[in-house]
């Protein structure tokens, strides 16, 4: 691969041709850099198209554990929300060792086909404009389009119009009409489980962006898929340690506000949180998974020490994640007693 083609413009989304060797098998691929501010890091992330399918190779440069995305997606599966599959890999480029990366399954047509899920449309929430509000967080004024903040991935020509009507419809003034509209067009159980996942893992950026939304073919209702969960389990998206109460138990976006005004939805959401606290969101359930992931990458982390973190930083991550789970459980329990 001619690395100069990528380096000429870090910010281009244009793919360049390359050859990829995996487990002794060589295949032509197309690749590009991916991400926002992370493109300026010494260890960069990639999108690679292989055999017609896109794979994301995340450098996880802001996460000294390299497992937060993988652990979060595993947790979502445990609470009934489909999430991308992941695995850690060693990546080399032109014989240069790049270190440990997280390979993440892309959310696209094959994602749904593998799971037997019918999807009529798919949108990515790519920035904070995807906050389910009619007001832009940047200007404080009405949005020129309710589709601001979304990237349309697939669907028929009328799917964009249909989704925009849904986003407009949740802002009806009559509470009963709004509840009835949402019930007709949103898979509320899926949404509340997605909300609980973001709240429990502590993904501050996960409510107004960094998610995918698709329209389920059979029900015709919109459903959520989590995306970009590096800033979780006690650290933010820049790798800084944060307090375990940084994220509100109700998250923050306009659709959630609308839903939780209704007693039956509050009760359902509270039940989902309580079930998670009894089951998967415990040290007993999550720490064996986290420690297993950490143990798999540990030998390579020792060999390929990142520029930002030391191996000692990596060794402290199990205790940090455990501490976060313990504290977060206590916070959520307290909030459930007061508000749900």
From TrEMBL:
<keyword id="KW-0946">Virion</keyword>
<dbReference type="InterPro" id="IPR014867">
    <property type="entry name" value="Spore_coat_CotH_CotH2/3/7"/>
</dbReference>
<dbReference type="Pfam" id="PF08757">
    <property type="entry name" value="CotH"/>
</dbReference>
<protein>
    <submittedName>
        <fullName>Spore coat protein CotH</fullName>
    </submittedName>
</protein>
<keyword id="KW-0167">Capsid protein</keyword>
